């Protein structure tokens, strides 16, 4: 039995997220279906983590076990031939028998893209949040680094099954920056891990800062232990990309 590690990119617009679900298209389910055709029996694909419905990936990492002796390059070609065009396998390599892309991961990097122009091209609308409204971008740039460090991010998390399991909401953020680029505002964040909707809620909160509805003290209060208010509204999935997974 071989353990195979793949890196894949996908346009998440027409998928209900990474995790396999009955009767709806998902990234994991689609990849597993293709591998079952190649292997001749069901194949479980483990991902580095779940992405929500509509979220994209530039370099998601996944792994699976396979008996088929197909050479790696041929396996890559076969998967890309069978997969829909919205999912592409970028690389395929042999991995250690116990490799698990989620548990071995040390960091993840996300990027959120906000288009600030008045008119958003129909060819961009699937990959940005269109926000043509007044915004103090300098306040957002100044506030983004406040999220760096180890904090309790429960105020930025959507309800999840892990809540019932008593898992910690503490995460370490290594890098948090917002940068203007032409008609765009790009937010980039790298951390040890992320809670459900955490990045999108961070973006929604930073937009509230830019609108003048939150100040530095209110933002820092969201990161302090104990009872706290909820973060800003959840930003649309369309602007979020999983950029890379670090090992």
Give a description of the structure.
Helix 3 crosses helix 5. Strand 8 and strand 9 form a beta hairpin. The protein is built from 6 helices and 10 strands. It folds into 2 domains: 93 residues, 2-Layer Sandwich (Alpha-Beta Plaits), CATH 3.30.70.580; 140 residues, Alpha-Beta Plaits. Strands 1, 2, 3, 4, 5, 6, 7, 8, 9 and 10 form a 10-stranded mixed sheet that branches. 22% of the residues lie in helices and 29% in strands. The longest helix has 13 residues. With 247 residues, the protein is an alpha+beta fold.
CATH domain fold name of the largest domain: Alpha-Beta Plaits
What's the rounded overall pLDDT mean?
94
Shape verdict: globular
Count of alpha/pi helices: 6
Radius of gyration (CA) equals 19 Å
If classified by CATH, what would the architecture of the largest domain be? 2-Layer Sandwich
Instruction: Output the CATH class name of the largest domain.
Output: Alpha Beta
- How do the helices and strands follow one another from N- to C-terminus? EHEEHEEEHEHEEHHE
Structural class: alpha+beta
Count the beta strands: 10
Looking at CATH, the homologous superfamily of the largest domain is Pseudouridine synthase I, catalytic domain, C-terminal subdomain
Q: How many strands, what sense, and barrel or not for the largest sheet?
A: 10 strands, mixed
Total separate domains:
2
Tell me the quaternary state: single chain
